[in-house]
Specification:
alpha+beta, seven-stranded antiparallel beta sheet, 11 helices, 30% strand, disordered N terminus, SGNH_hydro_sf
Length: 551
């Protein structure tokens, strides 16, 4: 074991020795201390530190070897998790070989394509200046920006690069369209014939201030976390799906995607290994309170020759857990998803995967909780492979449905009580009408209203097991799938049990469905919405889909 990972652990512990205490985690100083030796300007650090706590709402992991730019504008689109009353951006030259000059940085709400919403554009400064130079290996954190950041929305960050950059610090697998234009057009509402790219360059973080913030969760992993095989420009990575679930249930938790396609736990390659980047990509993230460590070890098993043993993977995992706990961060372990049929699958690797998963599921694993990605995605009839409905086709990466299954496997109770109780209404796709607790809640729920009033509003309650319940404003009672689900839904309970508990499922079109714990069936607006809601379906179609409308 020592011959293969001893060097990695030694380097990791060296980085860990400089890690900041939990109270300072995510500060500009923390970023400078962790993986890269140089720092942003003192003025920038002072400005960031003076504004109070920040929480990350979007992030990507930096990598080396990106394209070079000269006298060009980058307009990059980021999809937020939580909102905030002000913002700041972080621009990285972590892997640059020369100083990076940036100028005329702007932030705005994105309309569509490369366009921005008129009136939302704000200039971003660094130490009070509209331009700055970032030393090779360093990070620049902007001044606070008077910019209201909406949750679950697209924000455009534009950066002008006035001189040659050399090979850039970038994030290769963006799964989103970004734009490159000639000259300084950062403040333009639209861009004329820009080039497009699927990567992110220099921009690594968007942070917000939000008084209700409960902190951030970092999802650390490889291509499955990074969103490989997810629908392009659709924000269907599983961390995006998790952000939606958290927002729907009233949690104000930033979700920061630190996946790198091809990344490994023990060995550098596609980006620094998880051991080498944990301090920077997890401990230094603004507001971090949780980390979900996902499927990096699959790449160790498939692309390292000879592959590591399960004991070596477990030793690496234990190092990460110790580092997280030393810095006050809760560590959520993940089982490894199936991959038989992938090009680099071997029986030796499969044996190690199963042993690693057995350890993660065992008592005394050191994890604060477990996200069982394997159980959520494998075929029960052939557990070394994906459920066919979840397989993207390469037998290694899940499709959008499989990614949603991973997000749905995360128990939201791990993030504490919601910051607030959301008030929602439901619009049935069956007929386009609003669901009502009719007759002041005395009648079963039915989709037959065209406007929203008290009978059509519900508190969306988060339960300890990750399920949700609905409390009707019509009478203050909890909605039940009565008679073990054989009767229509009705608001007639004062306490929550299995009949009053539902899994909230996120569908590919942005709608939601409800699976009743009473019988395991999906709730439907039966007969095209003309009959009361009842849990009696085993598959999701139009009658089983609802728009979740926040109050």
């Amino acid at each position: 074991m020592r011959t293969r990972i001893g060097w990695a652990v030694a380097a990791f512990l060296t980085a860990l020795a400089t890690a900041v205490a939990p109270a300072a985690s995510g500060s500009a100083a923390a970023h400078a201390q962790l993986t890269h030796p140089t720092t942003a300007t003192a003025a920038t650090a002072a400005a960031a530190a003076a504004t109070g706590p920040w929480t990350g709402t979007w992030a990507v992991s930096p990598q080396s070897g990106g394209a070079a730019f000269n006298q060009q504008t980058l307009r990059q689109i980021v999809h937020t998790s939580i909102g905030g009353t002000s913002a700041r951006v972080q621009i990285s030259n972590a892997f640059g070989s020369q100083p990076l000059a940036i100028a005329d940085v702007h932030i705005a709400q994105r309309s569509s394509g490369a366009g921005i919403v008129a009136g939302t554009d704000q200039i971003v400064t660094f130490g009070g200046q509209s331009s700055t130079t970032i030393a090779a290996g360093a990070l620049a954190v902007s001044d606070p920006i008077a910019f209201a950041v909406p949750a679950l929305s697209d924000v455009a960050v534009s950066i002008y690069l006035p001189q040659g950059t050399g090979a850039s610090t970038y994030h290769q697998q963006g799964s989103a369209t970004n734009y490159i234009a000639s000259g300084d057009v950062s403040g333009s509402q639209t861009l004329t014939n820009p080039q497009t790219t699927g990567s992110y360059f220099f921009l690594t973080n968007l942070d917000v201030q939000n008084a209700a913030s409960q902190g951030a969760v970092v999802t650390l992993g490889a291509s499955i976390t990074d969103g490989y095989a997810s629908s392009f420009d659709a924000d269907r990575r599983w961390p995006n799906d998790l952000a939606v679930r958290l927002a729907q249930t009233g949690h104000v938790v930033g979700v920061l995607n630190q996946g790198i396609s091809g990344n490994r736990l023990l060995v550098d390659g596609a980006g620094p290994s998880a051991l080498h980047r944990f301090a920077q990509d997890v401990l230094a993230q603004p507001g971090v309170r949780w980390v979900i460590f996902a499927v990096d070890p699959i790449n160790d098993l498939g692309s390292t020759s000879p592959p590591p043993s399960s004991d070596e993977l477990i030793a690496g995992l234990q190092q990460l857990i110790a580092a997280a706990h030393q810095n006050g961060v809760r560590f959520l372990c993940s089982t490894l998803t199936p991959y038989q049929g992938a090009g680099y699958w071997t029986q030796q690797g499969e044996t190690a995967r199963e042993a690693f998963n057995a350890y993660v599921r065992s008592a005394g694993n050191g994890c604060d909780a477990v996200v069982d990605q394997d159980a959520a995605t494998h075929d029960p009839a052939n557990p070394t492979m994906y459920l066919p409905a979840y397989d993207s086709g390469d037998h290694l990466h899940p499709n959008d449905a499989g990614l949603r299954a991973i997000a749905n496997a995360v128990n939201l109770a791990l993030f504490g009580a919601p910051a607030s109780t959301p008030v929602v209404s439901l619009r049935a796709h069956a007929n386009g009408d609003i669901v009502t607790a009719d007759n002041a809640g005395a009648a079963p729920l039915i989709a037959n209203r065209t406007a929203i009033g008290p009978w059509e509003t519900f508190d969306l309650l988060s339960n300890a097991d990750g399920s949700v319940s609905l409390r009707a404003h019509a009478n203050g009672d909890i909605v039940s799938a009565d008679n073990a689900g054989s009767s229509p839904l009705i608001a007639n309970r004062t306490a929550i049990g299995p009949w009053e508990s539902f899994d909230l499922l996120n569908n590919a079109d942005g709608s939601v469905s409800f699976r009743a714990h009473a019988n395991g069936n999906i709730v439907t607006a039966d007969n095209a919405g003309s009959s009361p809601l009842i849990a009696d379906r085993t598959a999701i179609g139009g009658w089983e889909s609802f728009d979740l409308i926040p109050d």
